[in-house]
Amino acid sequence: MSKHSAIRSRATILDIAAAANVSTATVDRVLNGRGGVKGRTLHRVMEAAERLGYIDAVEAPPHYSAPLSLDFILPGGTNTFINNLAERIAEIAAKREHEATIRVHRIEGFVAEALADCLASLRGKSDGIAIIAIDHPLVREAVRELSNDQLPVLTLVSDISNVPRIGYIGIDNRAAGRLAGHLMSRFVGQGAGKIALFAGSLSYRGHEEREMGFRNILAEEFSNLTIVQMLEVRDDTERSYREACRLFAEVPDIRGIYNIGGGNRGIARALEETGHAKAVVFIGHELTEHTRRFLLSGIMDAVIDQNPRVEAREAIDQLIRAARGESVSSTLPIRTHAIFRENIPEQ
Fold first, then answer.
1. pLDDT tens digits, residue range 193-236?
2. Are 285 and 81 in contact (CB under 8 A)?
3. d(CA 170, CA 68)
4. Where in the chain are the domains?
5. Are strands 100-107 and 153-156 parallel, antiparallel or unpaired?
6. pTM: predicted TM-score of the whole model, two decimal places
7. 152, 93 Cβ separation under 8 angstroms
8. Per-residue pLDDT tens for 160-196?
9. What pairs with residue 168 in β-bridges?
10. Partner of 20 for a Cys bridge, out of 48, 304, 317, 325, CB 3.0 to 4.6 A?
11. What's the CA angle centered on 313, arms 311 and 314, to 5 degrees?
12. What are the residues whose beta carbons fall under 8 Å from the beta carbon of 228, sequence distance 6 or more?
């Protein structure tokens, strides 16, 4: 009698169900290849059956390699970077459809209720979820409930505190804010200078961390620069335009603008129309078709970039691994790049 046969005579379907935390009916469906079981659950049952010696790996039924169901929840709106990220996810999903069916959900940005509701709607329908997190009690509770269901949740671009998420993929946003402050001081030069900050919303921990990093380095090293206004524009182009026009009317001697989030097009338009273009240092985030043009024309002085293709690829990889019960990295830092007119990479 083989080793596995000996163990198999002792292990039962009840043992497998207990080890995989599922019902015996689910175990029966998996072992007999009848389908109707989510990929994440199927993998968990098969892993338990193999670990207990009930079956050999070669005995796995055809449904064992069934595609997983993965979901990405991204904010909608005019943020070009987020739109590019959604496109990169779709491109990679098309190449990996044999491994997973990947769906992208676009919700109203900066609305915690919308994100929490979307998360709740995916309970029992997904094998893994990636979100651009809003740091809000409703969202934290929704993530905890999914974790109780053993559903892996990954944060992307912006993290969230005090939740059992499997990991975070994105840049070090505090370091990015410090880099922006360093660049701002170099461009403004000596002497006093008034600076304005634009943010999508500080409900995004990533935006809050960028602001903190920017403020910290100015307080530590560049006390000649003073932040006179902090404007939340929800990454909206038209709102950014209106707030920038108001800023220039109220603070005509403004020396610099740091845009923490989206809305670069609105700020650039206001700079041009009010005659402040090239006179005001303008630093923002993400190299897109629009910021590329603003760098070339001199409206923007620097862009702090992250790579959406790498973020999409790593997020899909991590979710697939987690859904299969494999180990994942708790943090996968994405490198930041300072882009100027002189070093714009090829498209």
1. 999 999 999 999 999 999 999 999 999 999 999 999 999 999 99
2. yes
3. 23
4. 3-65, 68-170+308-334, 173-305
5. unpaired
6. 0.83
7. no
8. 989 999 999 999 999 999 999 999 999 999 999 999 9
9. 155, 331
10. 48
11. 65
12. 194, 195, 196, 251, 254
Coil vs helix vs strand at 157: coil
pLDDT band at 59 (very low <50, low <70, confident <90, very high): low
Is the distance from CB of 260 to CB of 285 less than 8 angstroms? Answer: yes
- In the CATH scheme, what is the code of domain 68-170+308-334? 3.40.50.2300
Position with higher pLDDT, 33 vs 303: 303
CA distances (Å), origin 20, targets 14, 51, 94: 10, 11, 31
CA dihedral sign, ordered 77, 80, 82, 85:
positive
Nearest to 144 by CA among 160, 119, 127, 164: 164
Could you tell me if 159 and 330 are in contact, meaning their C-beta atoms sit under 8 angstroms apart? no
Quick one: which of 302, 280, 279, 281 has its CA closest to 291?
Answer: 302
Token pair in block for residue 279: 């006179």
Tokens of 329: 């990295």
Q: Are 245 and 213 in contact (CB under 8 A)?
A: no
Instruction: List the CATH code of the domain at 3-65.
Output: 1.10.260.40
For residue 218, CA distances in Å to 64, 179, 182, 206, 258 come to 55, 11, 8, 19, 12
Tell me whether the CATH fold assigned to 3-65 matches the one assigned to 173-305.
no
Within the chain, how many helices (H) and strands (E) appear?
13, 12
For the ranges 49-53, 128-132, 241-245, 315-319, which has the lowest average pLDDT? 49-53
**Confidence class for position 1, pLDDT limits 50, 70, 90:** very low
Superfamily of domain 173-305: Response regulator (3.40.50.2300)
